[in-house]
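Re: export button greyed out
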Amino acid sequence: MKRIAILGSTGSIGCSTLKVVEGYPERFAVVALAAGSNLELAFKQTLRWRPKLLSVAHEDAAAALGKRLREAGAGETEVVWGTAGTVAVATHSQVDFVVSAIVGVAGLEATYEAVRAGKQIGLANKECLVAAGELITAEARRQGKPLLPIDSEHNAVHQCLRGGRMDEVKQVWLTASGGPFLQTPREEFASITIAQALNHPTWKMGRRITIDSATLMNKGFEVIEAVRLFNIPPSRIRVVVHPQSTVHSMVEFVDGSILAQVSVTDMRLPILYALAWPERIASDLRFDVLSLKHLDFCAPDLEKFPCLRLAYEAAEAGGAKTVALNAADEVAVVAFLEGKIAFLGIPATIQAVLNETSARKPESISDVLGMDSEARELARRFIDGHSSDSRVAATK
Amino acid sequence: MKRIAILGSTGSIGCSTLKVVEGYPERFAVVALAAGSNLELAFKQTLRWRPKLLSVAHEDAAAALGKRLREAGAGETEVVWGTAGTVAVATHSQVDFVVSAIVGVAGLEATYEAVRAGKQIGLANKECLVAAGELITAEARRQGKPLLPIDSEHNAVHQCLRGGRMDEVKQVWLTASGGPFLQTPREEFASITIAQALNHPTWKMGRRITIDSATLMNKGFEVIEAVRLFNIPPSRIRVVVHPQSTVHSMVEFVDGSILAQVSVTDMRLPILYALAWPERIASDLRFDVLSLKHLDFCAPDLEKFPCLRLAYEAAEAGGAKTVALNAADEVAVVAFLEGKIAFLGIPATIQAVLNETSARKPESISDVLGMDSEARELARRFIDGHSSDSRVAATK
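Workaround output, generated via the alternate export path:
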């Protein structure tokens, strides 16, 4: 029986994790949940799963929810709050496995503490590797506990890596759907609208990750995640565009063999893989090979998608550069979605922030958070300072 | 240092094996070679590799070749002959690894003796699994030594199986190029000519295997090989048509993940994989993922390709049925190539022979050889008896 904590239980990955756990009551138990501000769902999840511990964002909400749970006969669940509450969920003594699925830097400290407490980690939080990857992977190696990736690409790589030893790996191929602008001519990129950018061809996701998919920055983040998860230099993490998103990634070995992972595009599969690892558990998440039909592959165009190039540069430098890459991108995407900057203003903002950022290695999570704030401030200043620059600002 | 014997050194796989060995003089040494009737090449190979032992087909050729080798200063190579000679090569005390690449039932006894002698086996001989698979795999399990497949499909499966335990395998997907008649309408199959059938779209191979690829019987044999190599029932060995022959095969696990192997279509790769196993050794056999472009997949048409259906039926029954499948096919293919029967006469002959064959399990290699002779005789009689039957005989 694996005893599970979920950081971000009310989010998309959190809900999918609970769906997976539901199917295997003899294998998995939910011990602790960290929700955010969706108190209604947190209440329902607590009634259903009866965790020992629930954490929510704020103190007053925790008090109110605790009262409501007692009235509903679920008073055995202790309700805590804030960062300390999330850390308590992540490090609960009865927890074996922590699913890290809080979006953004908010998940960093709790995930790091879970690693330090020797938990097995299922990692769905990008920032844990992009911003704090050097710290977290070093600690995981010290603990001798694997970080199991819960996203389709790195999960696929994890599976393909079973085909050989790490020193037998030539390179890793991350597949990219190519986003909505794969076929868009370069000269039309300046006039891409918010609606166009939000219209992703294969995956339905949140707004930021949808824009990051349209700029290919999402793939850039994945390059950095792969560098850190698998301890492979950026030059040996390659990207291939594969519009069908059926091959989730590949590993090329030194002898010339390539292993590729294929499955349905359903997050429950990488979640189940991580929860079950090192075993595989039967599921109904079937992919019919006879339905494969056509698969297409091509090289990404780094001229059309400068964010991918910027990510490689940040990956090579490491340290604060990758913290800044993520922070600047988040600020720029929000500004784009608010109509403040154009689509091409996103890479312009990130480039400007990277130019002003060192490659110093962070020494702690609070150091990461400091670097993150600094980069956000640089990004905001750049956007405000270029509100009349036609290459950055949105056309009205 | 792995010390290697090659059964069938002058054939296509034998020559490719020597090319692979040539690239890694610090890892592999050639200890013994079994050639056939190509004495000129056997002579050259002996001068180049200086094996301890060389076997050729006939006694007089062995004597003449021994004399020639002594005159050429290669007298340290002992020259032996016939089946006993091949067995001596396969069981030589200094040999660790035997590449079994003699075509046809001629390779059975030597391969079986190599397994009994506890050698690691690289298996490129189809009959070892199709005809004598029950005996040979049982002995290999008793010895605790793996049979490493040297053909692109089973080698790919072997690689993909590393992604989980055997009891986590849902099914195996063998890819098939589909042969030259993938797009040919059913009604044109009756008039397929020898030249059309010899024109294989992706692989350049011998005449029998090219015809077996055109009828999909080759894929049927591979189903039986997979059943026996991996100890999986026929119903869980599936075939998917994939004209590009880039994905060499796939393994589907119970959780819904599928691992696929991709590489160049060059036999040196599975040979290197088998020789190096459980390691992987760097090679220049690169496949450029960015050149993948389009991959197509579809279901095989068992109506158009009855040989594949017959192979599944033989696989389910086992024993003499699979011996007869191979023997009858070989006789039928020769008859087709001699213009005695039509393309559709091949499955008609095999069906007729299978109808008259029991599923009795062979108890020894000589038992297999007896079953083989019997099936060949049945096939010849069927062909002779239907020389005026328009559904079997070739149109003049």
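The longest helix of chain A spans residues 365-385. The button fix ships in the next patch.
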